[in-house]
Amino acid sequence: MLIQKLRLKRGWSQQQLANASGLSARTIQRIEAGQPASIETLKSIAAVFELDFSTLDPERQMATMENATSEKLEAEAFDYVRRLRRFYLHSFRYVLVNVLLVVVNLMATPERLWVPWVIGGWGLGLLLHAFRVFGPDWMLGPDWERRQVEKRLGRQL
What we know:
This protein is mainly α. 76% of the residues lie in helices and 0% in strands. The radius of gyration is 30 Å and the shape is rod-shaped.
């Protein structure tokens, strides 16, 4: 498929590519139809297009794509774990500090309770943090970002 794209980009016919690479037109047809090509054939075609032959090798491309996908998934997993850890630390601080504030409020000014305002305000912040960590991605998440970029570009990334 890549060979066909490169050939069409230059405006060549299959026969012209065959002549330039020293291969038969039938070999070019087979490769463009998806049949595997030998390393020597790929080297000949790559020389014509002035590319490294590994960029034309579908097996290497698949391995590279699988590796990139694996690395992306790994990076996303690490990012999620970091966000989860921050949320747990935030929750721990929320409980600890608010317990101390309740004690201070009840000992210092038991007739006037101000601590519910602190608990409520901070609780709202903790709820928003939880929503960002555990909430749906459709709301301003990475998938939403990707969709918006693709919409702006008018094509797939």
